[in-house]
Amino acid sequence: MTTTAGLIQITPYVWEIPVSYKKGMLVPARIFATRALLAAMDEGVIEQVTNVACLPGIERYAMCMPDGHWGYGFPIGGAAAVDAESGIISPGGIGFDINCGMRLVLTNLTHEEVAPDLKRLVDRLFARVPAGVGGRGFLRISRSEFRQAVEQGAPWAVERGFGWAEDLERTEEGGGIAGADAGKVSDKAVERGYQQIGTLGSGNHYLEIQVATPENILDPATAAAFGIDRPHQVVIMFHCGSRGFGHQVASDYLTSFLRVMEAKYGIAILDRELASAPFRSPEGQDYFAAMKCAVNMSFLNRQLILHRIREVFSEVFRKTPEALGMHQVYDVAHNTAKLERHEIDGRSRQLLVHRKGATRAFGPGREELPAAFRQTGQPVIIGGSMETGSFLLAGVDTAQQSFFTTAHGSGRVMSRHQAKRLFQGRQLQRDMEKRGIYVRTVSYSGLAEEAGGAYKEIDEVIEATRLAGLSRPVVRLLPIGNVKG
Fold it and tell me: Which terminus of the chain, N or C, has fewer Cβ atoms within 10 Å?
């Protein structure tokens, strides 16, 4: 069926825009969504995903996930795989908050046990994990030490006592992607980042205490394999990235790519926000090495935050983090480009997979996964709005169609500016507390930006990922306490 917008319905949950839609498209564009979610997407998504389909070296499809909305260059929720030899790398396909991602941590506590101390927990987390624009972390290191740290990532922190060895096993890339070269990073980027390790940041970043109620355990066997195995179990989820450091790395290389893209490499693009360089060019490889430093900064940042969370729970409950069962479920990245092997036309190929506001979601059996998840598929953590809840999912084999990529969140339905006009932060905080969600924030206007009404319904997004065969839900998690970044 062809719709009036020129979309071809491939399945009830997969929509294709053919190459005839726009001059220069090298592959079709595919949107994974229910009809309702598709209808709610802004026109910019169509424009941007079809621009992505014009990038040199792109393979199979340009893609948009069910939570897709307009972004910088790529739509948020966008993904593209390019040939590693003939393709390009584009900072706009990765985003400014490089390796913005999610981490989920278990406890062996129940809601009943946590409830009397919930406000004390949230207040202490709010004090111990700096939030907001320009927040500084507790770690005091020099600029040169920071350069060493971002070449290693989370292992640097664990070696210094800020975590457990098992945390690394349960983090994408072991918490430290290989090939990071701080020599490719500007002094300005280091200046912006070296005091921000262990901070949440602002925007849609948060730290949340959540509960897995029995009726929301959707796949008990997989939930137990992921460590959620008791009624009303309390977990902690947080979302943050590479802070000012990652933003500066992206800004530096966007400027660099714009200088050489056409003049040196003859790459013509439809949108300057998709500035690119050949992946194997000196400029492309320099950015890849610098981007990896930002990827590692983000893993390092989340590792230090986990350390602080364990400290706070340990103080409040007067038990060690080990006795509280504070094991990490997994840490997933959103904004990255990674070299991965995927099968195309029956042949294994090395591809550079750009994921922008999208989550890698490997199915069972992938060798990149730790042994604990080879049977279940990769844990996938998808954050909803602070009012409505979040999900833990698992990767599935059928996600091969999207190069094992799925959604990353609810997806906005309005701009931050619109949200601030519609919602009042202080009132929102009071209303949420009446509903059993205690929130601390550095900014009421920032809280208003993240109101539940500013986002798509998380249940619709998750159902679309399931129906489209991108990932499968395991547990729905309800918020009870939130530190808003």
Answer: N
Which structure tokens are listed for 203?
A: 């925007």
User: For 178, left (φ over 0), alpha (ψ -120 to 50), or beta?
Assistant: beta
Question: Which of these ranges, 129-138, 299-308, 340-349, 407-416, has the smallest mean pLDDT?
Answer: 129-138
Q: Which residue has the tokens 């009012």?
A: 387
- Pick from 109, 136, 142, 160: which is nearest to 327 by CA? 109
Report the residue count for the chain: 485
Q: In 198-355, where does DSSP find H-type helix?
A: 220-225, 243-260, 282-317
Amino acid identity for residue 364 in this structure = P
Q: Are 47 and 13 in contact (CB under 8 A)?
A: no
Whole-number Å distance between alpha carbons of 6 and 20: 10
Sequence-distant (≥ 6) Cβ neighbours of residue 160 within 8 angstroms: none
**Catalytic residue among 239, 247, 408, 417, which?**
408
Contacts of 43 (CB under 8 A, 6+ apart): none
Instruction: Please work out, in degrees rounded to the nearest 5, the angle formed at the alpha carbon of residue 94 by the alpha carbons of 366 and 451.
Output: 100
408 noted as active-site residue: yes
pLDDT confidence tier of residue 6, bands split at 50, 70 and 90: confident
* Strand intervals (E) in 111-160: none
Do residues 66 and 407 touch, judged by C-beta distance below 8 A?
Answer: yes
What six digits make up the tokens of 135?
Answer: 């927040």
pLDDT at 5: 58
Angstrom distance (rounded) from CA 482 to CA 485: 9
What DSSP character marks residue 194? T
Q: How far apart are CA 192 and CA 58, in angstroms?
A: 33
Mean pLDDT of the chain: 95
- 8 Å CB contact between 299 and 176: yes
CA angle 271, 277, 283 (to 5 degrees): 140
Give the pairing of strands 14-17 and 8-11: antiparallel
> Interior CA angle at 60 toward 8 and 358, to 5°?
85
C-beta atoms surrounding 344 within 10 Å: 14
The alpha carbons of the chain give a radius of gyration, in whole angstroms, of 21
User: In three state form, how does the secondary structure of 259-283 look?
Assistant: HHCCCCCCCCCCCHHHCCEECCCHH
